[in-house]
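Lay summary. Proteins are chains of building blocks that fold into shapes, and those shapes determine what they do. In this project we predict the shape from the chain. Here is one chain we studied, written as its sequence of building blocks.
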Amino acid sequence: MSRTVRWGVLATGGIAARFTEDLLGMPDAGVVAVASRTGASAKAFAERFGIGRAYGSWAELVADDEVDVVYVATPHSAHREAAGLALEAGKHVLCEKAFTLNTRQAEELVALARERGLFLMEAMWTYCNPVIRRMTELVRDGAIGDIRTVQADFGFAGAFDAGHRLLDPALGGGALLDLGVYPVSFAHLLLGEPDRVQADALLSPEGADLNTGMLLGWSGSGATALLACSLVGDHPTTASVTGTAGRIDFPHGFFYPERFVLHRPGREPEEFDSGPGPQGLSGLQYEAAEVMRAIRAGETESPLVPLDGSLAVMRTLDAVRDRIGVRYSADGPGDSSPSAA
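And here is the predicted shape, written in a compact code that computers can read:
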């Protein structure tokens, strides 16, 4: 493959715009095509960002021979269809989080990518962030001893119209998949998949979760994670990792951090930051860089965001939905009934 990796952007919403802006600021990335369900939306997006080709259907984008990798930025409810279409067409895929609506859909995408020998990654930009990577190195090296508790939350009070996608269960609406995926993924990064899941939630009349609290447990280590997400309350959106020998605190915006503070008994607090970085980019460039590195190396998944890890997160999200009574129209008879007790 040439030095420049050629991207096709599938969908034209806010996250697609942010990701495209970051790609355009990277010297080794090119955005060659964009697709939407309507030609007008694709054309407007292409004109905004100087993209050469605009398609009014997803099928046209994935058939474009000039596209190396497709970035799927649709709502969760369309991730399985859009990413599957791209993989079937032989394209590598970066798919927004939450990966899919449920574990079954995620397993189908992973199986398809592995069968075709194609790269697939969930767009969990947090895992690719250099500050998060530094934190995981410190934890792995024993800087805070054995982890005992992880705390993380993400919430804001939104004024949403009745038809907004965040309130529509048919689109995977609710706090859990949009916001809760970050605290859950943060806990998974540090502790792996829990074997105990408890949860409670406030649901909307339509059945979307508006405010959700989670308690995850790991029998082997005795560690716990206290997590929360909300569409009806402004949370601090912070995170802490407490171990037997210290604590790491992340300020507001823990899922795209620029710094954290390490506390250890008998020592002054130590602050770690990202240092000088690219100007004008939002932080999504780190996941884009990892995708391009892996594709150039001939890898079919990223060690930073492994597919088995994304499947484990989906199983936990399914377990939470099972506890709070949230189901989506795409769920089948066996969906949202995982084994975590």
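What the prediction tells us: The mean pLDDT is 94.
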